[in-house]
Amino acid sequence: MALNDMTLTRREMLKGAGGLLFVVGAGGLASVADAGGETARATDALAWVRIDPEGAIRILFPATEMGQGSSTALPLILAEELDADWDDVVIEQLNRDDRRFGNPAFGNVLYTAGSSAVYGYFDALRQAGADARAVLMQRAAALWQLPVSELRTEPSAVVHDPSGRRAAYGTLANGAGPLAIGDRPAPLKDPADYRLIGSATPRRDVPGKTDGTETFAIDVRVPGMLYASVLRAPVEGETLVSMDTAEARAAAGVVEVVSLPDGVAVVAETPWAARRGRDRLSVTWTETAAARDWSDAAALEVYAAAAEDLTSESAVWRVEGDAAAAIAAADRTMSATYRSDYAYHAQMEPMAVVADVAEDGSRAEVWAGTQTQSWTQRTIAEVLGIGADAVTLHMMPMGGGFGRRTALTQEYVRDALLCSRATGRPVKAIWTREDDLKHGWFRPAAAQHLRAGLNAQGGLSGWQHRVATPSVIAYFNPLRWQQVAPQDIISMRGAESKFYAIPDFAAEHVITERMARVIPWRGIGAAYTSFAAEAFVDELAEAAGRDPFAFRARLMSENPRGRHLLERVRAMSDWDRRHPGTGRGLAFAGYGDTMAAGVAEISLDRDSGVIRVLSFWAAVDAGLLVSPGNARAQVEGGIVFGVSSALRERVTIERGQVQQENFYDYEILRADAVPDIDVYFATGTHRPTQVGEAGTPMVAAAIANAFHDLTGRRLRHMPFTPERVREALGA
Amino acid sequence: MTKLTINGIERVSDAPEDTPLLWVIREELGLTGTKFGCGAAQCGACTVLIEGIASFSCITPVGSVGDSEVTTIEGLSPDGSHPLQRAWVAEQVPQCGYCQSGQIMRAAGLLAATPQPDRETIRSVMSANLCRCGTYPRIFRAVERASREV
After folding, report:
1. For labeling, which of A2, A51, A117, B44 is most exposed (least CB within 10 Å)?
2. Which residues in chain A are contacts of B74 at CB distance < 8 A?
3. How many folded domains does chain B comprise?
4. B47 touching A (Cβ < 8 Å)
5. Do B41 and B61 have their domain in common?
6. Do A219 and B32 touch (CB under 8 A)?
């Protein structure tokens, strides 16, 4: 059953279908319903559990799945405290913008980003499970006329050891019995008793991803469906002047040509006919958009000048003490400027949406893979001018997200809707890879200027980190910007360097003009701020004549867990044994509250300028690991992503147009360039922190620092392309 | 009108002969396990076996297939029990999963030609297929695991 319409299910159930329905709030269980009635404790409901008489335990998955694995991890947290048999658990996707189930880490917006699902929902789901378990125990106590204190649970059953009585959860849910919820939250398990959290429970979605049955939005097929291919304005802001559609309309299989706000769609009976029809369009666009002046090179020049001009206006990201005074008072002052280019998500599934708009435009059914029920539903309602209750949404698993599918306004959804409305038939709109790249929204280009002082003892005296880059939030979610401006976590994360204790510290956002479409990208700001910060730390350690481990450990005098990671990664990488012809580099970064220490070992072909990352060792503290196997997979993948970004990935823009087309000129890392990866996880805390993005931010600096170890030269412009490497070598 | 043999079953396609096999398989015949990624033989999400050889279906015109036997992920085993599929589950390879049909079909082509490939051969052959989630280390292990069973 799709949990599309749980309210309907609930009504049906109250009519006598049996079973127990739990409404769970931030403070635990909010209400319980059975065929006879309902009891409620007023809180904001956050999650639903339904136990069928047959014993199936249906747990709502409120996030969306893009490969990060939280479609298994979130229900598992609830199942743990419910003491459910995992084999009884049925996971059901939340398919609408219902803020009762919203992500507590994002003000209850339905939003899957920032590696936040597990840590954001952790408390609510645990309490939900514990409270639901307490209700089942009360029902067993009533049934058996026994004090609840004599009962315990085992997977999916309440048992009474002295009498040998046992009642399955499904049986308890079906019978009559109390629905009362305790006044206080039910007690939680001792983490030592966890059966599911921390276990090797496999991901639920893996079998369907090995036999071809997993259905992504691009795979959805609806009777009578047409296909749309969209020719988009080549430069942001340009509009249609004129078009000749005769040839396109004459092409076999073409049904309709539809004008869109920034493009022209050819709608046809097959995807290939739509593509061929699109090739036959003759379109003239305006040539007046301001974006015609955009170029990546010009953007970086402007951003670097702004970062280096200490008088240019900036928004405070984090400040402690008086960085400027400490630097001025230091024995030595160091400074450096780091650059990073635009980067593309390259998610393997290009944008694809199926929309079926009712002929009178009053209703719509949409199949889409996005990171947010809230903003997808909002996009649909706004495009069609209909209410949320006229929208039937299907949140499909995504063929990768990495931030690309987070925007407030989703043009890929809009296009499918407009094409369906224009033709009166369901339409699948599929972006080509070229569409996806040329009309991508990117990690912004950034220039960062860092300054620091060193005292006579080789210690740090003041740190100033100026990040010149646009506000990402202002563009991809202007509503959010109204709430948070000028604090832009997407542009700035990582620059707070919070794992170090630096008394005189300043991180500043020089908010520059946007010269491309920008959006979150794996690691958000930390993907480049941690590159700059950790490459600069390496420069400072060298200038201070200190070992890079010792220099960082001194900055972590109040962070023993961080120092532990340094010690571990030093041992794992056998740091003190050097291999001829290779370089080693250290970085300490992480994401959010997750800390990660990484060592890269590289080799270099000096003639071609090609860096090869041979090995990467990482020591990670992500707190409690709900799904340790998947956490390891995420960090491995995050490291691969980081290597790819550091060595290769670069979007260039000229006259407002993206220059790259496909994977042949935007190359992501292939199997032959993947390093050996070894990941260690620290243990010993009882709360999870971020995992999905934690592997990425440390990588670029570790490689740059390894390059210095090998060559004595610094790489300060990411990616470290062969041309830039040769330039750094002075070749 | 093109006759095809897909997963051992004769099928007929109305698509023009220049239509890529990928779109016929997916949208006309409904075998959506084979994915569109790039349309340019760059990512391998569309990989199928043609006469046992891993091929990019996105650049293979349907009219060029002729009598050749085409195998898609749906035809690799009746129930997901091919040694590669079991190895993929055992190593928990997929993350988003979008590329994995193509990865498995590429690996099937490899093992058909080289039942016991060494790590370097696996790296080299699997480099035809991209994975943005970065599952490559697990892909290597899964291919090695399956090669011990084939």
Report:
1. A2
2. 211-212
3. 2
4. no
5. yes
6. yes
Question: What architecture is domain A296-343+442-728?
Answer: 2-Layer Sandwich (3.30)
- Full domain range(s) for residue B91: 83-147
Tens of pLDDT along A308-326? 999 999 999 999 999 999 9
Strands A391-395 and A364-368 turn out to be parallel
The answer to whether the CB atoms of A347 and B96 lie below 8 A apart is: yes
* Pairwise CB contact (< 8 Å): B132 & A400: yes
Q: DSSP string of chain B?
A: -EEEEETTEEEEE-S-TTSBHHHIIIIIS--TTS--S-SSSSS-TTEEEETTEEEEGGGSBGGG-TT-EEE-HHHH-SSS-SHHHHHHHHTT--SS-TTHHHHHHHHHHHHHH-SS--HHHHHHHHTTS--TT--HHHHHHHHHHHHTT-
Report the run of H or E that residue A480 belongs to, with start and end. helix A478-484
Cβ of B88 within 8 Å of Cβ of A210? The answer is yes
CA distance B18 to B11: 17
Domain ranges across chain A: 3-209, 218-286+351-430, 296-343+442-728
CB contact under 8 A, B100 and A630: no
Q: Would you tell me which CATH number, out of the four given (3.40.350.10, 2.60.40.10, 3.30.365.10, 3.40.50.720), belongs to the domain A3-209?
A: 3.30.365.10
pLDDT along chain B (150 residues), means of 10: 95 96 97 98 98 98 97 96 98 98 98 97 98 98 94
| A636 contacts on B by Cβ (under 8 Å) | 134-135, 137-138
Residue A617 near residue A573, CB atoms below 8 Å:
yes
Other CB atoms within 10 Å distance of the CB of residue B118: 11
Complex ipTM = 0.98
The reply to whether residue B23 touches residue A272, judged by beta carbons under 8 angstroms, is yes
Pairing of strands A460-469, A505-511: parallel
Task: Sort out which chain A residues have CB atoms less than 8 A from B80's CB and list them.
Answer: 207, 210-211
**CATH match for A218-286+351-430 among 3.40.50.150, 3.30.365.10, 1.10.1740.10, 3.40.630.10:** 3.30.365.10
User: pLDDT for A511-541, tens place per residue?
Assistant: 999 999 999 999 999 999 999 999 999 999 9
